[in-house]
Amino acid sequence: MLLGVLAATTALKTAFGVVGTSLWLIPLLIAGMAYYRYEALDPESRPIDRYPLYKTYDFVVVGGGSAGAVVAARLSEVPHWSVLLLEAGGDENEISDVPSLAAYLQLSQMDWQYKTEPTGRACLGLKGGRCNWPRGKVLGGSSVLNYMLYVRGNHHDYDHWEALGNPGWGAREALRYFKKSEDNRNPYLARTKYHSSGGYLTVQESPWRTPLAIAFVQAGTELGYQNRDINGEEQTGFMLAQGTIRRGSRCSTAKAFLRPARLRSNLHIALKSHVTRVLIHPKTRRAHAVEFVRNGVRQIVYAKREVIVSAGAINSPQILMLSGIGPAAQLRKFNIPVVKDAPVGENMQDHVGLGGLTFLVNKPVAIVQERFQTVPVTMQYIIHERGPMTTLGGVEGLAFINTKYANKSGTYPDIQFHFAPASINSDDGVRVRKVLGITDRVYNSVYRPISNRDTYTLMPLLLRPRSRGWVRLRSANPFHYPVINANYFADPFDVATLVEGVKFALRIADSRAMRAYGSRLYRVPLPNCRRHRFASDAYWECAIRTTTMTIYHPVGTCKMGPPSDPEAVVDPRLRVYGVRGLRVIDASIMPTIVSGNTNAPVIMIGEKGADLIKEDWLKPPKGK
C-alpha cells in the first residue's frame, strides 16, 4: 500500500501544481483515508469507466457534472433505456473528498482553468486584469471543486421564471425537486415541510466550527435579522452554512447519484471523453449522434431518442455553436454550417462581489494555516471525520440582507454574505492568492504584512446583477477555449449596490458579538485606490473593481423561455428550439440567475429535466 500512496502523492502534487511543503500531509491523508474508511464507508465504490462502448444508446448525456450526473442516473432508472454519460475529465480522488482542501482543486487538472476577458472595469488587481473562472473537468463537475454550500435561492426567483412564460418552473414545483434529491441530516430541518431525508444528496452542517461563526450569526440578530433556515419559508436572515457533505467528506453529484447506479447494466460512463460536437441531420434537423475524442481517438456514438447537453454554462454554448446552433454571423465567421440561428452564449450572468475585505481579531480563533496544518488535525479528520478539515472550504456562515436598493417587501434580499474565519493572508500566500490570481503588488503591499495573523472576511455578493456577459467561439477548434466576457459592472447599478453591501459588512464587524474578539477593519489601502479617502464610497467602488471576486456561478447562456422570447434557446421543457432530439439541462438554461449559490438549483434542474424526458417518452399513446 505504501508504494501506492507514494505514487498517488506524486501524481497529486503534479496535478495540483503544489510547490514545496504546502501539502506535506498528503501521504498521511491518503494512507489514512484508504486504511480507515474511504472505500469501506462508500460500498458503492467508484463508477465504472466503460470500455468498449456500444455504437448506439437511447440517450447520450454530454457532461457528467452537477446536472449531467443527475440526469444520467435518473434516466437509467428506466430499465429498458440505455444511457451513455460522456465526461471530459477523470474521476474524483481522495483530496477532492476533503472539504477544507477545496482551494487546492482549483487550477488543477480537475479544473478547466478558464479566465475572463479583461475589460478595464473589474478584476483590476488580478493578473492580466482577468478573473479566474474554475469549472469542474471531472466526474461530478463543479460539485467536486466548489465550496459545497447548499443554497436554493429565493422563491421569488422561480415564480419569476414562471411569470416569464415557463410553466412548471415556479417555486412550488422547484421545492418538490429540491426535496426529491435531499437527504438532510439536521433533524430540526428534515422534519419541516421545506426539507426531506432519504434522497441521494446528503446535506448537513460541518461538524466543526470556530467561535467566530456563532458571533457572526449573533451579529445578525443584533442588526435586526433573524437566525433562520435560509432554505425555508423566507430567505432574509443569517445562518450557519449547510453543505453537501457526508460523514465530514464532500458529497458531489458523482458520489450522490452515480455511485449507487454504478452496477446498472443500462448505464455506461466514459471518462476522458471530450465532446467536439453534436451531429444534426441537415434535412430532418434531428440530433442523432455525438462526436468526441477519447484517448486521442475520434469516435461517434448514436442516440436513438435524444442527446442531452449538460456541459455547463461555458461548455454547453460552445458545443452548441460548434454543432451549428448559435448566432449565424459568428458561425459563418468560422465556416461552421448554420443549423439554427439562435442567441446561444448570450444572457450570461454571474454573482460578483468584493474579495479580500479583511478584519483583524485579537484572539486565536481564526483558521491560520500554520496552526491547523498539523498531524493531530489530519488524524482527527481521518479517524473521527471531524475537525477543521471538515469546514466547507473555509466558509462557515451565510447571510441575506436588504440594502436601500432592495425590494420593499423585505423578502427579496439583494446582497448575500459569505463569512469565513480567514482571509487572503491566512495561508501565507501559498494557495488563495494563486486561486484568485492576485498580483504580487497587491498581495505584497496589503496582505503579506499580516501573514498568518488571525483574521476573518465578509464577502458581499451581488445577488441579481443587471449586467450581462457572453460566451463566444474563439475558433472552430473544439479544443480552443471560448471567449468569456463576464462584462462585470457594465451597469453602474451593480457596483452601487455592492458598495452598500460593503457598508453593511462594516456594521456586522462593529457589532458587540464581533467586538468581543477585538474585531476591527484592516485599514491598509489597496495601492491603486490610495487616491480615494479610505472607506469612502469612492474607495469601496475602487476596491470592488480591483479585488473583484466571483464565486463561480455563471448561468443563462442557453436561456429558457417561451417561443415569443427572442433571447430563448430552449423551451420550458428544455428542448432546443429548431432542433429535434436535443435538450440542454444545466445552469445555462436559467433565464435569470438565482439569488444564492447555484449548485443546489442546478441539481434541481437536473432532477426536473430528467422527469420532463420521462414524461415525454413514457406517456401512454393517444387514445389509451
What tags apply to this protein structure?
28% helix; alpha+beta; 8-stranded antiparallel beta sheet; 624 residues; 17% strand; 19 helices; single chain; 7-stranded mixed beta sheet
Polypeptide structure, described:
InterPro entries: FAD/NAD-bd_sf, GMC_OxRdtase, GMC_OxRdtase_N, GMC_OxRtase_C. FAD binds at residues 138, 275. Keywords: FAD, Flavoprotein. Belongs to the GMC oxidoreductase family. Helices cover 28% and strands 17% of the residues. It has 19 helices and 26 strands. Helix 7 links the parallel strand 5 (182-184) and strand 6. The longest helix is centred in the last third of the chain and has 20 residues, at 599-618. It is globular. The N and C termini lie far apart (61 Å).
Strand and helix map with partners:
Elements: H1 2-16, H2 26-36, E1 56-62, H3 68-75, E2 83-86, H4 102-105, E3 114-115, E4 132-133, H5 155-163, H6 171-181, E5 182-184, H7 187-190, E6 201-205, H8 211-222, E7 237-240, E8 242-243, E9 245-246, E10 249-250, H9 253-258, E11 267-270, E12 273-280, E13 287-294, E14 297-309, H10 312-322, E15 325-326, H11 328-333, E16 340-341, E17 352-354, E18 358-360, H12 369-372, H13 375-384, E19 397-401, E20 415-420, H14 432-436, H15 440-447, E21 455-462, E22 470-472, E23 483-485, H16 492-509, H17 512-515, E24 520-521, H18 537-546, E25 548-550, E26 582-584, H19 599-618
Parallel strand pairs: 1-2, 1-14, 2-11, 5-6, 14-26, 15-16
Antiparallel strand pairs: 3-4, 6-8, 7-19, 9-10, 12-13, 13-14, 17-21, 17-25, 18-21, 18-24, 19-20, 20-21, 22-23
Helix pairs in contact: 1-2, 2-13, 3-19, 6-19, 16-18
Pfam families: GMC_oxred_C, GMC_oxred_N
InterPro entries: FAD/NAD-bd_sf, GMC_OxRdtase, GMC_OxRdtase_N, GMC_OxRtase_C
Protein name: Glucose-methanol-choline oxidoreductase N-terminal domain-containing protein
